[in-house]
Each structure stands twice: as C-alpha cells, then as structure tokens.
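The authors assume throughout that readers already know how a fold can be written as discrete tokens. A single example would do more here than another paragraph of explanation. An entry of this sort, consisting of the sequence and the corresponding backbone structure tokens, reads as follows:
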Amino acid sequence: MMMAIWTNEQLDAINGDGCSIMVSAAAGSGKTSVLVERLVRILSNAEYNVSADRMIVVTFTRDSASEMKQRLIKAITQKMEQEPNNDWLSKQHSMLQNAKISTIHSFCFDLIRDNINSLNLSPNFKIIEPTQEKMLCLKATQDAIESMYKSNQEEMIFLSQSICDKTDDDLEKILIDLYEFLISVPFFEDWFKSKCIDYYSKVDMFHDIALDSVFNSQIEVLQQMISLSDKAIEICEQSDDENALNILQQENDFFIRCIDILKSKDRFDLDILKSMDSFKFQSLRFAKDNIFKESIRKYRDDYKTLILKNTKINFSILIDVIENYSQDKATNKRVSIILLDLIKNIHENLRQIKIEENVLGFSDAEQIAIQLLATKDINGSIVQSELAKNLSEYYQIIMIDEFQDSNNNQDLIFKMLSKGGTFEKMGYNMFVVGDVKQSIYNFRLANPQNFINVMEYSKPYNKENLDRNSYIKLNKNFRSSKPVIDFVNYVFENIMTDKVGDVVYNQEEKLIYGANYPEGNRCTEIPLIDSKKNSEAEYIANTIKSMIDNEYPVMESDGSTRKCKPSDFCMLFMSTKDVDIYFEKLQELGFSVDFDQDDEYLKSREVSLLINMLKIVNNPMDNIALTSIMLSPLFMFTPDDVATIRLVNRNASIYSSMIEVSKDIQYTQYSKELVIKVDYMINVLNRLRDISANCTTAQLMSEIIEVTDLISIMQVYDTSEKRRRNIQILLKLAQNHDANSITGISGFIRYINNILESSEDINVKNNISTNDSLSMKTIHKSKGLEFPFVFLCNASRNFNEKDVSSAIQKSFNYGLSYKLKDRNSLVEYTTVDRIRMCNQKLLESRSEKMRLMYVAMTRAKEKLFIPLSYDKSDTRVVNKISKYIEDIQYEGKITTNLTKNAKSMADWLTMVLCCSSKSSTLREFFELPIESNYILECYPDINMYEYTPNIKDTQHDTSSEDTIIFDVNQDLKQKIYDNCNFKYINNKADLPARISVSDIVKSDNFKIKGSVSTQDLVESSVEDLRTPNFMRLDNLTPAEKGTAIHTVMQYCNFDNLKLSPLDEIQRLLDEGYITKEQFNIIDISMFNRLILSDIFDLIVNNRIARERDFLVKVSDLDFKNDNILQYQDTDTMLQGCVDMIVFQSDGGIIIDYKTDNVFSMDILKDRYSLQIKLYKSAIQLIENIKIKKCLIYSMKLGKSIEID
C-alpha cells in the first residue's frame, strides 16, 4: 500500500542525526522507502555536506542495491528539474554513479582492489561461485587429510574413530562443514583456541557452565513433574483415598528433594545421585469408590514419562557424565587439537590453490577485508587498523539494510568502518535497519544476535538527548489487511519469546494496522483437514479456482478494485520436498504454476540432457549418459532399439556395439531405421568430439545445442520459456568456469558431478512468470515479496532436526561439541557439553522456524489461508492436542516448554487455537470436550471449519446388485430410437469445432485462379511437414526463415534495434531467443529498412501489443465472406495471432509483417487481404476498440500497404 504521509516514527528515522540510529522495522513498515528518503534528504541538502562518494550503503542483494541506486538517481534528478541552478545537486547526481551502494561482498572486493598492493594477490583476480569454491575446498581437504595421515597417523585414526560414522568420506564432509563455519568467525584460530582447546583444558566441575546448564535443565523437568504431581494430589484430595494420596505425596516430596540436591554442592555426590536414580515408582492402587482415578492416573503417567523416557535429562546420564567428566574433557581437547591442525592445513591448502588459479571466493572477501580493517593490540583486543581509521574518517555515513541477516565477519567489518567503532559496539555514524523477527538465514551463518546486541546497547530515540546510539521501532504495517494483522499478532504474542524466537512479542513488537482496505471478507481461513480422507493440495486448488471463477475482488494501490487473477495467489512451503502433489492438483484444474525449484535445476530435463551430451562427447563409453541421450527426444531411440544394440556384445560398451551396428550397411542383421539412427548419432558425436579438441566448454555446449536443435525440441513443452532460460543459465555457468579454470570440459563435468554427489544444486534465478501463473515458493524465497492471497502450505510437516544431531555442534557463543564414540565398541556416548549444546541448538532451531512462520504469514496483503492437516485416526495426535489444552489451561498461557518442543508449525498454530475462545470447531473436529473455560481470547476475525470437498459426480458400482427387469414402453422406445438415428439435412455437424485464420486463407487462395497452383499447394504442404535434422541437408526452409524474423520482431527492444540492429539481434542469440542457425540467415538490411520506414515511428512512439492471440466465435464476427459463410450459426471458434497492434487515442492499427519473397506489394495484398480483415474483425471484438487502419509490411521490400 502507498503511504500518503510519514508517521512520526518514520520521520524520526528519516531526519534523526547526532548518533547512530538502529531501526527495528517490522514486516510491511515501509523501511526501504524510509531508507531511500533519508538518503535523498541527506544528499540533496548542502547543509549536511555529505558527498555521495563519501557514504557506504549495504544491501542484502545486488538487485536491491541496483534498485536503491536507481531510486536515488531518479529522486535527485527530479529535484534538479525543480532547481536547475543548484550546483550541489548536479555534483551529487554525477557522484551517485560511482557511489558505494552495493552488497557487502561487492564492497569488500572493491576494498581489496583498492589495497591490492598491500596484499599478496594479483590485481586481475577472478571471483568464483560458491559451488566452485566448494570444489576447491574439497580438494584442499582431501590433501590435508592425506598429509595428516602421513605425518601423524595415530592421531588421525583416533579422530576418525572418535567422531566419524564409517569412512574418511564422513570426515571430509565434517571438516568442510566445520571450515565453512569457522571462516565466518573473525580471527577464527584465536576463537577456536579460546572456545575449544582452552575451554576443554579447564577441568573444574564446580564451576563448569556446561554442567550448570545440564543441572538446570534437569531442574526444569523436575519442576514440570512437580506441577503435574500437584494436579494429581489436588484431584486425589477430593476423594477419601488415603493410600493413593500418600503414594502421590511421597513422589512429590522426592521430586522436591531432587531439586534441592541439584541446587546444592551435593549434586556432584555420585552416591546421592545413584540413590535418586534408583528411585522406583510404587504400584498405585485406588480405592474402589475413587471416582477420580482416571484423571489422577493420567497426570501420574505424564510425570512418570518425563523421568523415565526423557533421555536428555535422565539421572543415569548425569551420573555418567560426572563419572567420566575428566576423561571426556581430555578426549574433547585432543579432538579439538587435531581438528585445528587439519583446519589450518585446509585453510593454507585452499589459499595456495586460489593463488595458483588467481581466484577468490565470497568468504575470502570478508576474511581479507577483516585482515585490512582489523588488528590486535598488545592486550589481544581487536581494534581498528590504520586503514580502518582513515576510512572511518573518510566515510561520513554508513547505512546497512537487513542487518539481522549479517554474519559475525560482516558485523566486525561494519564496526571497524564506523567512526569510533570498537569490537564491542558500533560507532556513531551508522544507520542500521533490520528486524530480528525476520532473521531466517541461519543456514548461511547469519547471526541474529548481532542485531539484538546493537538494539540492547542503544536506547529509545529522543532527539533532545543523543548521548549514545538510539533505536526507533517501525511497527505500523502498510501492507496487510486488519484481519491478517490481527491474526499475526494473536499467534505470536502467545508463542514468541526471548527463548523461542529471540524476541519478546509484546506491545513494542506488535504490528499496527496502517493500510486502508475497504470493507470485505478478508478473515483468515483455517480449514481443518482429515489427511486420511482429504487432500490439502485439493483444498488449495479448489479454493483458488472458486475465487477466480467468482471474480473475488482485489484492491489496487490506488484504492480501486479489480477481479483476482492467478498471479495474486502464492503458496508458501518450508521446503520443496512435498510440492509435487500441489503442483499436480493445480495443473489438473488448468493452472499455470510458477515455481523456481533451485534444488532441482541440475535435474531438469533440458539441463540433464545437455550435461549428459557433454559427458558422452568427453567419454562415449559412459553407458548411463549414452543410454539417457539415446532415449531422449534428441535421437529418438526406442527401448527396443537400445536392447538390440546392447545384445550385440554384452561385454562391450554400448558405444562399441553402436559401431558394430553402423557397419551393417546392407541392413542384413539390423533394420534400416536402426542403422540410420545409429549412424547419424555416431556422426554427430564424432563431429562434436573433433570440435571439442579446440574449443571451450561453453563453445562446445553451443555446438551441441545447435547440432541437436535442443531449443526447438524444448518448445513443445508448456514451460518452454523457462527451459530455454535454464539452457542459457547453464551456458553462462560454463562460460564462468572457462574463465576461472583451466580444467576444461572434464573439469566442468567433475564440477557438476561433485555438486550432484553432495546433494546440493546450483542457485539460479529463472523467474519466468506471467499474469496467468500461480506462484509456489519456499518461505525463504518469499522474503521481501507480497501477494494478495497467501497459503501457508504443509504446516503439519515435521521440522528437520539434522542440525541437532550433526557430528559437530557449532555455536558462536559456546564453541564446539562432539558426538563422541567409544573407540573399542564404537558406540556413541553423551558428554556434558554435548547435552548443553543440543539443548541450545534445539532452541536456536525452533527460534528460526518460528521466525520463518512469521515471515510467511506477513507476506499476505488481503487474506491469509492456513490449512491444518491432521490424521484423526492417530490417537497420538488427539492425545497431544488434549495435552496442549490441559497444560495451557493449568499454566494460564502457552509455556516455553511447549513451544520449544513443537514438531511443526501446525503444532504452534494448534496451541494458540485449541484454548482460544473460538476453539469449538477444532475441539469438535477431534471430538474433544467443548468447555467455556477458555484461556486465550481470540480477537482476530477467523473462519475455522472442517473441510469437506464438494463431490459433484458420484460413481456407483452396480455390478454386484441383482438385475431388475422393467416393463418397456414400446412407443417411447421407438421415439428414442428415431431421435438417435436422426439425419441432419446439412453437413454442418461435420464442421470442425475450431479453425484457424490460416486454414481459411489457404482455402481462399486455392479458389483464386492463378494465385497458388496445385503443385505449389502440394509443395507447401510437404514443406510444412518438417524434415528431421538428421535427414536434411539443405538450409532453413522459407517458413523457418520467416519464423526467425518474426521471433526477432516479437522479442527485440525497438529502442536498441534503432541504435544497432546487429547488436540487438546478437543479444537475442545470447539469451537464447533465436538459434545460431537462425542468426546466420537473418538479413540485417531488412531491419535497417524497417528503421527508416513510417511504421517504425508508429511502433516506437505508441503503446503496442505483439503476438496478440485470439479465439472468437465465427458467428460473433462483424464480417461476411463466402469462406466463412458455412460457419455462421455454428459454435465454431476462430483462432489466430496478430503480429502487432498499435494503440492510439482514437483507435488501433494492425500491422502484419510478411517475409514472402515477392516483387510487388499488390501480391501481398491479394494473398492476405482476407487474413487481415479477419484479424480486424476479431481484434475489434475482443479489445473493444475501433481498428482504424490495417497495414501489411514487407520485410523484403521495406514497404507497407493499407488493406481497405
């Protein structure tokens, strides 16, 4: 929504100065507009005296940086137009072109280039992609392991047996993962020594923070048990069952005694701990008249389960860690020392490899920037280097967007660049924007604690008192409707805390409704779905179809409304694992779906075809790749063909067998069709192999695309545009590899194989979408986007717990902990540090997932849909929800213990709904008691209901029923027979349901004497049946040449075409719109003539529509002609495509360009008058405009003619 005026908080953020300002900007609060406005006011006001070249602006993505720079240039340009004599604005405008507005990595690379003389680097270094860097890191790791085995085999065996599952392959993965973590930590060697080696050297149980945390965890569980025990005692006191009451009281007393011991010095006394561990629950027998026994037993079973089954906080584990405390410390220290040696070797190996190949990665940018900006004083404290001091004086302002997603390296870089900055705090010339609630990039090693720290160090902004850094909170949301805002607030005020979520969601954090939506049904939809009977995907597909069919209104930014369209809908997922069923259901209903599945890029059909072609050119003996290509549309072998070839010699490669088949030139052993296919494929491979000897990977790939006609083949798919883009992306990837590596085609194939083997993929951007496409995205990909209607999909999917179970747990604050194994039995065992770290990682993981849910829900503008799927037949699900209700009612709130133990987003949503004042539908769904004792007041407008699909047609099987014989009315039978055998008096029933304009024109031309001969018609028909590439020796047909010209006219930028037709057509080739063969046959002079023609002025000076498809009923056309007379009074549809429509204020002009090889415009007029007239009638009907002129333009002659 557009903001008419700035809020007071926004104005403070825009105008505030005198100190560093930290802006906590909630979702939809207009933070980008605020940041830009602040910059515009500072740069345009000469009194601030801030030059554009003396500021640093850092954004999260290159696109954001580019957009911000363009917005600034536009704003300053507008001010210059208002003040043409303002020299300051002119100066700022010129300096903005080179202003430091970039991502952090771009800034760091510029810093490195500016100081290249002080570094041992080549000034022309190349930047490699993360996937390429990972390959180099793998090589460096393998070398380090091999070297370590040679120099210290005993320690390597000890390490492998202590932390690895099976082989050294596990060790490679562990080390690479650890190295990637460590290089995000400033001065990581010092950090490692302090947090790991020095920490594990201290053997002092009485002051061990890890042991303290384990004891505290045990105490928390005991307190939960006492709470449950108190409930059981309270109920039992209502009966006269003294025996049961005594047993319950004894157990309660034992739990209290345990807490007292764990808080005292006796907690290290093994005898006392063993006595606690030996405690046995007595058999509880109730009096016969005890009517409360079931309720009592339930609470007792709950606290027995806590102590008997919760292995993380079991007394036996406490005893074990204390008994083995010293030995575990020694083992952890020894492991840490070996790991540090390996990491240092990996770091040095990788550095040498990069120097040899003259490349740098993104992690190097941060590490080298810190090397330039930070140093250590005599006390070991991190301080500004001389360069940093100079830069901090030079740069007057530093602005950072999305600071919650910064890592520790980036945090230090910003501090060192700021005026007065130290390791502990920011300087006083910073403007930092972020939102902890939207920190969702832990997998990229983002540390939300960085933003939390700067907020805690700051005080609320007060322009009258600016003695230290201040913060401003922007909570007014200008994006979402009130029902969306209310539901988001209701959910997170009940579950988000500083323990789970990293922020207390209180009045300061709650969203405030700031948009201006008219009245309408925008309440949050929460359908409850029985997953055993119905499909969530089916619900979503049907709901979207119903809303589009019923023309559900959508509000535009100017306040007007329109009917909704597919692109208004977005489905958000935590991961891409389960999207297929949703995709299929939507496609069944005819929807086009836009979904960038990055982790499936290398497995996409067109990309895997290209990669497999590279593989067999490089090595034809690769049977798997060869078989894949043979069965593909590129060569069209059948499975029987492949089987026949394979049986030639089972002991030889398939390629060798193909050579044998190709020798059967008389077709005595094999069919002629098979021999021709084999011979053609061998010739293609030989040609490509010859070319590969003297070309780059990208050049070879281009030849493969050309020879196999891959682009044309991909055109038959619905997603042809996206597939063409995918091919283009792979070409650019190969070009980057060629530029940054000397390993050639084999190296590129190894590079791709390594990515596939690591279960990773290439991060690509291929956003091909239209107004007719629904959006499916991961929540991470939706960050920064907004949609009128958002579906939070698959909320019942369990969280991925791999971070909690990894071999090495990593924490910026606590260091490392290891999943150790007994060297003799190879059985894993638990250490005190492992317990502490697992508890911490569980909280961090849950916090990130909660913030992920916040991001998802705040993408919605008008309406939010949250389907909740449950298996009602699973008693564990029902029991879990029943337990939620009991715990929340007893505690009076949703506790941290509940939220941190949630297994899915649906668990959190169920918690906030099951005890709310609107929970009756949910309780009825699970057949739970409906009570009036609600704990949570549900103020949002929600619509919660059990989803049952509408079944229109029910198939009924009567095969097993008895046959019933009815009396037949013979008169009625004869009447039905006569009706079914009715003969139409004309042949309109045989007319086609759809006909194209081309069909009608061909029919008309056939009737025109001398216009087209029978021989010409036959030849054109034969020409339309395109000969396969492998059987054709000539060049492109005239029709195919015409297609090439039309493709250029469809996709070219006419402004660029006017500057240089050749450059613009080259761009279309580079971006995959046309093939190399098409490029070679295009006559540039045609476009030179076009630029000089009258119609070119029409094109560039008016709004145009290109390739306008239409489908209309013939009988609706205001046009009479003998050729279409037979279709009058029928439902026959006319289909066609107009090359171009020019829109002017008084009507439209149709332009149809022809590539026919003619010498006179009159010939074109005779041939195509009927076609143009049909176009005119159809366009006037569907566009509801007057077509005032129709023109045919000849690309060959460079002339146009009007059709009357």
